[in-house]
Amino acid sequence: MNWQSWSDFWSMGGAAFFVWGSYGVTFALIALELVVVLRRRKQVVHRLQRLRQAMKASARRKEIQQ
User: Fold this and answer.
1) Radius of gyration of the chain from its Cα atoms, rounded to whole angstroms
2) More confident site: 33 or 60
3) Structurally, how many domains does the chain consist of?
4) Which residue has the higher pLDDT, 36 or 9?
């Protein structure tokens, strides 16, 4: 498409609502996905740390019992 001005670009030939709306929804969903992935990663890291601590504690108890 050829635009004669910035105003023409932003109006997208009358389809601006759909064009910019789709960009907005896409950006929002990508941002939401990023937030969800980062939260899940944090949960997994904490869970692995707890498991590692539990394994170390269990190994120490077995060591003491022997």
Assistant:
1) 26
2) 33
3) 1
4) 36
**pLDDT-based confidence at residue 1 (cuts at 50, 70, 90):** low
Q: How far apart are CA 30 and CA 23, in angstroms?
A: 11
**Can you tell me whether residue 2 is helix, strand or coil?**
coil
**Alpha-carbon gap, residue 18 to 11, rounded angstroms:** 10
Q: What are 40's two structure tokens? A: 């899940």
Contacts of 36 (CB under 8 A, 6+ apart): none
Which range of residues forms the domain containing residue 47?
25-66
Mean pLDDT of 44-57: 96
Residue 60 lies inside a defined structural domain of this protein: yes
Buried b (16+ CB within 10 A) or exposed e, 23-36: eeeeeeeeeeeeee
Q: Which residue is associated with the tokens 């929002």? A: 28
